[in-house]
Amino acid sequence: MQRNDLTRRRGTINLTVLMAVLKFKALGFRAKARRAKTKYRKQIETDDRRWGGRRLKLSGRAAVPIPGEIFGLFELEILDLSTERTSGLDFRIERLPREIGYLYRLRILNLDVNALTSLPDAICELKYLECLTVSCNKLQTLPLSFKKLIRLESLHLASNHFQAFPLVICQMESLKFLDLSCNQIVILPPTLSKLKYLRTLLLYNNKINEWPDALCDLIELRTLWLGKNELKRLPIHFGQLKHLDWSNYPLSSNINDNPLMSPPLNVCQLGIQAIRDYLGSGIPKRSSL
C-alpha cells in the first residue's frame, strides 16, 4: 500500500514538474515574441508622402521567411515586402501566409519581385486596402473574393503569368489604376467597361488582338498603353477616348509595335484626333452600357 502511495506521489511530482517546464517554455516563447514585436515596432516609420501612414519595410533575410510577429502589428498602414538581392543571393517570398488578413488597417501592400504563385483568400479581408502591388511574380489567377477589396484604387500586376484576363477585376469599380503589362493576355472582356473611374490602363507587351467596342466607354482614361500587342484594327468608337493625347504627351499612351491596318500605325501615332478623323468624325456616340 505504501509502495502504491509512493508511486502516485512520484507521478504527481513528475506531472507537476512537466507542467512547470511547459509553462516556463510558453512564457519564454511569449517573451521572445514580445521582444521580436518590439523590434519590428522600432522599425516602423511614418511616411509623409501621398500614401502616408505607419510603414514597415522588410527585405532580404529579414523577409524570407516572413516573420510571424509582424502580423500582430495591427497599427501598420503600409507594408513593403518587395524583395531584393543581397550579396548575390535571391530572397523571394513564395507564399503569403493567411495571417496577412490580421493587418486590417493596411492601406498599401507591396509584394513586388517575389515568387508568389497565388494570393490567399485572407488578403481580401484587408477592407481598407487602397494600393496593392504584386508585379514580377508568378500569378496566373486572382481569388474570386478579390471583389471584396472595395476601396482598392491602384492594382499592379505587371510581369506575371496571366494568360486570361482576371475577370474578378471587372467587379472592382473603385479602380483608377490597373497595370497588367508584360503578361500573355489575348482577350479583353467587354465587362472591363464597368470600371468607370479608370484613369490609367497599362496593357503593354501582351498578345491582345482586339479592343472591344464596349471599352470605348472608358472615357476617363488619361493613360493607355497598348504597345507591343497584336491589334490589327481599332473599333469605330475608339475616338470617344478623348482624354488620350499621346501626340503632345508621348508617355501618356502607347500603341506602337502592333500590326495595325485600320487605322494604319502611322495614323495612330499622330494621336486620338487623327484616329477619330480616320474612323469618321460623323460617327454617333455609342450608348453606355
UniProtKB/TrEMBL annotation:
<protein>
    <recommendedName>
        <fullName>Disease resistance R13L4/SHOC-2-like LRR domain-containing protein</fullName>
    </recommendedName>
</protein>
<dbReference type="GO" id="GO:0005737">
    <property type="term" value="C:cytoplasm"/>
</dbReference>
<dbReference type="Pfam" id="PF23598">
    <property type="entry name" value="LRR_14"/>
</dbReference>
<keyword id="KW-0677">Repeat</keyword>
<keyword id="KW-0433">Leucine-rich repeat</keyword>
<dbReference type="InterPro" id="IPR050216">
    <property type="entry name" value="LRR_domain-containing"/>
</dbReference>
<dbReference type="InterPro" id="IPR055414">
    <property type="entry name" value="LRR_R13L4/SHOC2-like"/>
</dbReference>
<dbReference type="InterPro" id="IPR001611">
    <property type="entry name" value="Leu-rich_rpt"/>
</dbReference>
<feature type="domain" description="Disease resistance R13L4/SHOC-2-like LRR">
    <location>
        <begin position="98"/>
        <end position="182"/>
    </location>
</feature>
<dbReference type="InterPro" id="IPR003591">
    <property type="entry name" value="Leu-rich_rpt_typical-subtyp"/>
</dbReference>
<dbReference type="InterPro" id="IPR032675">
    <property type="entry name" value="LRR_dom_sf"/>
</dbReference>
